[in-house]
């Protein structure tokens, strides 16, 4: 939805990484619920992507073996001042919940970003066994103990996240980013 404030449209960036599509699917669900003009960027496909020029920034990343992929680390490193300077939302996709899930979230993003974020949450994750690579499948079973297709993606959490982001609507009229 395009939200106009006076002459201004709220420009929102969702920068994400995905391996098997869940984090991207969550980004798209989120985009539908956000008020503003949303740009979706897969930073793996677009390594030169920038966070410059947006009013709000959201980052999304999946957890693999307790860690995130280097492309998101690189994006955060390259765009740190821009990311720190705007209303921020952070999410992860992973199958672990509770304490283990939160540990994944804490490891995924630098502490400064986690402290600064309006909202940081776990959306859950999903897996289709037949889509896993030859080496991924045994690692997945070892890490998660799950042997079937599985999803615990929470549409409620995505909706609540969008609500929190929408509540913070204050794009400054200055040209500086
Ligand atoms: C090899 C492998 C390792 C994984 N390790 C973790 C993990 O450490 N913690 C976790 O919460 N989820 C783990 N998962 C689950 C993924 O995070 C989950 O499937 C997520 O939805 C993947 O997102 P994507 O489809 O965007 O790549 C793992 C999945 C695979 C295949």
State the fourth-level CATH superfamily: Flavodoxin domain
**Unreliable parts:** 170-177
- Determine Rg (CA atoms, Å): 16 Å
Strand elements, count: 9
- Bound small molecules, deduplicated: flavin mononucleotide
The helix content, as a percent range, equals 25-40%
Give the spatial strand order of the biggest sheet: 4-3-5-6-7
Find the structural class using helix and strand composition.
alpha/beta
Shape: globular
The major pleated sheet works out as:
5 strands, parallel
| Chain-averaged pLDDT | 92
Task: Work out the helix count.
Answer: 7
CATH class: Alpha Beta
Oligomer state of the chains in this structure = single chain
Can you name the CATH architecture? 3-Layer(aba) Sandwich
Number of domains: 1
Pfam family, one: Flavodoxin_5
InterPro entries: Flavodoxin/NO_synth, Flavodoxin_dom, Flavoprotein-like_sf, Protoporphyrinogen_IX_DH
Domain Flavodoxin-like: 12-166
Protein name: Flavodoxin
Compose a concise summary of this entry.
It is built from 7 helices and 9 strands. With 177 residues, the chain is an alpha/beta fold. The model is unreliable at 170-177 (pLDDT under 50).
Give an overview in words.
- The chain has 177 residues and is α/β, with parallel strands linked by helices.
- It has a single domain (4-126, 153-167), classed as Flavodoxin domain (Rossmann fold), CATH 3.40.50.
- 37% of the residues lie in helices and 21% in strands.
- The protein has 7 helices and 9 strands, in the order E-E-E-H-E-E-H-H-E-H-H-E-E-H-E-H.
- The protein has helices at 22-33, 70-78, 80-84, 98-108, 111-116, 136-144, 155-167; strands at 4-5, 8-9, 11-16, 37-42, 56-62, 88-93, 119-122, 126-127, 150-151.
- Strands 4-3-5-6-7 form a 5-stranded parallel β-sheet, with helices on both faces. Strands 1-2 form a two-stranded antiparallel ribbon. Strands 8-9 form a two-stranded antiparallel ribbon.
- Helix 1 links the parallel strand 3 and strand 4.
- Helix 1 packs across helix 7 (155-167).
- It is globular and about 50 Å long.
- The two termini are 23 Å apart.
- The relative contact order is 0.18.
- The model is unreliable at 170-177 (pLDDT under 50).
- Bound molecules: flavin mononucleotide.
- Flavin mononucleotide (FMN) binds at residues 18-23, 62-66, 93-96, 104, 125-127, 132, 136, 139-140, 143-144.
- The site of flavin mononucleotide (FMN) has 25 residues, from helix 1, strand 8 and helix 6.
């Amino acid at each position: 939805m395009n939200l106009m404030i006076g002459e201004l449209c709220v420009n929102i960036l969702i920068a994400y990484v995905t391996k098997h599509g869940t984090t991207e699917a969550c980004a798209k669900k989120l985009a539908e619920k956000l008020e503003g003009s949303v740009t979706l960027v897969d930073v793996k496909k677009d390594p030169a992507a920038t966070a410059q020029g947006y009013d709000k920034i959201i980052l999304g990343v999946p957890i693999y073996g307790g860690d995130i992929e280097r492309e998101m680390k690189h994006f955060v490193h390259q765009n740190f001042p821009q990311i720190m300077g705007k209303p921020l939302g952070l999410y992860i996709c992973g199958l672990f919940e509770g304490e283990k899930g939160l540990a994944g979230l804490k490891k995924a993003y630098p502490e400064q970003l986690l402290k600064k974020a309006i909202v940081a949450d776990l959306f859950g994750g999903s897996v289709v066994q037949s889509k896993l690579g030859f080496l991924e499948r045994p690692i997945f079973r070892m890490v998660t103990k799950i042997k079937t297709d599985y999803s615990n993606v929470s549409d409620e959490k995505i909706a609540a996240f969008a609500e929190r982001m929408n509540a913070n609507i204050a794009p400054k009229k200055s040209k500086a980013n």
